[in-house]
Amino acid sequence: MGDDAALGVTGETIWLDGEWLPWDEARVHVLTHSLHYGLGVFEGIRCYRTADDRSAIFRLPEHVRRLYDSAHINLLNIPFESEVVSDAILESVRRNNLTEGYIRPLVFIGDGAMGLNPGDNAVRVSVIAWAWGKYLGEEGMAQGIRAKVSSFARHHVNAKMTNGKTCGDYVNSILAKREALLDGYDEAVMLDTQGLVSECSGENIFIVRDGKIRTPALGTILDGITRATVIEIARDLGMEIEETGITRDDLYIADEIFLTGTAAEVTPIREIDHRLIGEGKRGPITEQLQSAFFDVVEGRDDRYASWLSYL
Length: 311
Description:
Elements: E1 13-16, E2 19-22, H1 33-37, E3 40-42, E4 45-49, E5 55-58, H2 60-73, H3 82-95, E6 101-109, E7 123-130, H4 138-143, E8 145-149, H5 170-182, E9 187-191, E10 197-200, E11 204-209, E12 212-215, H6 225-236, E13 241-243, H7 248-252, E14 256-261, E15 265-272, E16 275-276, H8 284-297, E17 308-310
Parallel strand pairs: 8-9, 8-15, 12-13
Antiparallel strand pairs: 1-2, 1-7, 3-6, 4-5, 4-6, 5-17, 6-7, 9-10, 11-12, 11-14, 14-15, 15-16
């Protein structure tokens, strides 16, 4: 998933329902249905400054497809063709004078009828772009972060369908994240309702043991685009990687653990529940995958050039 609360976010302009509005004028009514009941969908997308000093959005078609999939899962009919939203995403970076940054397409239900049934309330769409650095910090990227196993379980697959990035689902993430921060940690590792490792509050998780990489199988986790990227890169590098069940104590005895996500990119974990992971710092496989990932998103690896949409 993606926890994307950023302090001090600002910019020049926002695309809202097909119009470009000044940043401070992109407003909604207090009776906006999604504000009260949480039904909306979104994406988190990154634009990178590439090695040749251009700007490129990473895996734009995959993100837009997942946005429409999320809307379909939640019975939301997006009133724009996907090409229109894709163009707005590209244009949002240009109009906000960003060479790199974070883009947030958001689909939500507007004001009108109240109660659980939104009736004929309009489905609205916005695209926001802003400058955003490393989600878990530069030091965390290099040295690793501290995490705890959360007291909050991740969603059951039939309590809330997990293939969509649904706004209201992130209350679960917020509770886990705030608990971790209040207890002095940087991030929360969440278990599913069967007690197996699921994902973190806003990232997918991988463990390394004896040179082999494991990550939870799809089901209770979001099918992360960065997760899929890292799996493909790792296999292309000849690494052994398995999608399988992971237990809590598998975490404790791992040689390395790292997280993936659009916001977190590839971030190592150095400690979980007061137990050092490996040598208590970023491990060699994590470092290799980090380096390979940034070569890809910054346009230095031509094998993955199709993943970049240049401005």
